[in-house]
What we know:
Residues 141-267 form the Thg1 C-terminal domain. One of its GO terms (biological process) is tRNA modification. Mg(2+) 2 binds at residues 29, 76. GO terms for molecular function: GTP binding; magnesium ion binding; tRNA guanylyltransferase activity. This protein is an alpha+beta fold. The chain folds into 2 domains: 16-149 and 206-273, tRNA(His) guanylyltransferase (Thg1) (Alpha-Beta Plaits, 2-Layer Sandwich); 150-205, no CATH class. Helix content is 43%, strand content 14%. It contains 9 helices and 6 strands. The chain has a 6-stranded antiparallel β-sheet, sandwiched between helices. A hairpin with a 2-residue loop joins strand 2 (68-74) and strand 3 (77-82). Helix 4 (139-168) packs across helix 5. The two termini are 41 Å apart. 28% of the residues are buried. The structure holds adenosine-5'-triphosphate (2 copies) and magnesium ion (MG) (5 copies). The site of one adenosine-5'-triphosphate has 15 residues, from strand 1, helix 1 and helix 2.
Amino acid sequence: MANSKFEYVKDFEQPDILLPNTWIVVRIDGRGFHKLSDHYAFVKPNDRRALDLMNAAAVEVMKELPDLCIAYGISDEFSFVFHPTCQLFERRNGKLVTTIVSTFTAHYIYLWSIYFPNKPLQPPYLPSFDGRAVIYPSTRILRDYMSWRQVDCHINNLYNTTFWTMVQQGGMSNTDAEQELKGTVSADKNEILFKRFGINYNNEEEIYKKGSVLYRQYKLQEPKSAQASMEDDTSAPEEKQSRSQQDKLKKLRRKAQVVVDHIDIIRDDFWERRPWILS
Length: 279
Ligand code: ATP
Ligand code: ATP
Ligand code: MG
Ligand code: MG
Ligand code: MG
Ligand code: MG
Ligand code: MG
């Protein structure tokens, strides 16, 4: 654009570049999904279609943004992780967050009718998401962040599963169930489920207990003891080197299949067997 006397307004823009050499996590969360899930009659406590839709939208985000290393989703939220070397949008906070949020939302809405064919979207109940970026200075802390989200998934799911079983199968009112669960620990909830309803929480579906982790699939690493299964014949990217090497890596990342897994990401095993995710 040509210079004009109005150009000085550009100087009011504040820089928002995220600290170099740190992990960037963009976490998005559905706005008012409690209400939205009521309106479209999501199954309680876990609507499988809604989770599959979240995952499908997140897979598209991973495909559009090869800089993303991994993503983790539970309920109406998703965390997307950029590597410390990421230079996308010069690491500008606003650009990264808004691009993730709008790309995710666009795909979520585009794919909605596949997962909810009999429930067309209706204003004012249109899905939207907020988002924020947080930086983490070490891989250890990034891993603790991921663990924090998975622990949250477990705690919420155990509570919700027990609560809704007491209501749906036990015929209790919401308030009574809530009252009884006040101050209980995990063992108490497991016992209520098992003794009163014959439900072994361990047998609940992994997607509900563990959430969903998305990453690019290459050849699995031999685990320390048991044998690894070879799931794909693309080989994992090696150490980072020259420019052309980096371009090659980028191509590899673009080509690699994005998989959706429901698996423990707190212990080391997941990361040791897939060293390319954080390298
Ligand atoms: P906010 O706008 O502050 O995020 P919210 O209503 O979205 O408010 P959250 O804490 O994000 O509140 O919780 C999301 C809610 O959406 C859950 O408590 C649950 O009621 C509902 N929900 C999300 N995903 C599912 C699902 N797959 N199945 C059933 N309910 C779901
Ligand atoms: P970036 O991702 O960096 O924003 P961009 O391609 O979107 O890249 P912009 O500077 O945002 O670049 O410019 C938007 C471009 O989109 C315009 O230059 C024009 O080519 C096109 N465009 C947008 N709106 C219209 C329109 N209504 N009619 C024709 N072209 C349009
Ligand atoms: Mg423009
Ligand atoms: Mg929120
Ligand atoms: Mg929400
Ligand atoms: Mg939420
Ligand atoms: Mg533009």
